[in-house]
Q: What sequence folds into this?
């Protein structure tokens, strides 16, 4: 079992190298710092009782998983940003079509290189993410729960219904209402067709 000093020494020894590696992977120093700190906390909280010889492999696995989680969140955010940004550029007809459809049908997996965006595009993306987060937080609890499970966590309708303890039809209704409310909220804040 690793002592507190051995664990601390290990973490100090891997901190700089892990940070550099994560910066290379994410190309974002702030995100890399968060990822490394989260990984260190997870190691200390969950695996601090392991032998010192086991810590390097455990930490590497935790760091990889935390980095992958970050990329998944970025992909989800980028997909939603692209999705809602299309309303700003689209026509009234495309918005009407959206109202009648399942929003998942419109989502495309768009791989964007955020670093290639100019400053105004990055600012717009950040503002849209903030507006979307606020709008999601204002949804009624069941709509918010269904929306986040379906579109943030990528659960299917059946899984969402089981977790929420309701019918699949209710999940569809909650998601439809949530999506309509989010689009309306973003339209009111300047993201209009």
A:
């Amino acid at each position: 079992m690793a002592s507190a000093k051995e664990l601390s020494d290990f973490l100090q020894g891997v901190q700089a190298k892990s940070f550099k590696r994560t910066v290379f992977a994410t190309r974002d120093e702030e995100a890399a710092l968060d990822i490394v700190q989260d990984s260190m906390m997870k190691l200390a909280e969950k695996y601090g009782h392991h032998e010192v010889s086991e810590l390097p492999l455990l930490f590497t696995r935790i760091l990889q998983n935390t980095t992958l989680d970050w990329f998944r969140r970025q992909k989800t955010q980028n997909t939603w940003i692209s999705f809602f940004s299309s309303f700003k550029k689209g026509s009234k007809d495309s918005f009407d079509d959206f109202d009648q459809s399942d929003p998942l049908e419109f989502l495309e997996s768009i791989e964007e290189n955020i670093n290639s965006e100019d400053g105004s595009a990055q600012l717009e993306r950040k503002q849209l993410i903030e507006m979307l987060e606020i709008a999601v937080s204002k949804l009624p609890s069941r709509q918010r729960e269904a929306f986040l499970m379906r579109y943030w966590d990528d659960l299917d309708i059946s899984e969402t219904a089981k977790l929420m303890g309701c019918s699949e039809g209710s999940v569809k209704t909650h998601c439809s209402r949530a999506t309509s409310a989010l689009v309306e909220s973003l339209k009111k804040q300047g993201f209009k067709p």
Notes: The two ends are 61 Å apart (CA to CA). DSSP finds eight helices and no strands in the chain. The CA atoms of residues 133 and 192 lie 18 Å apart.
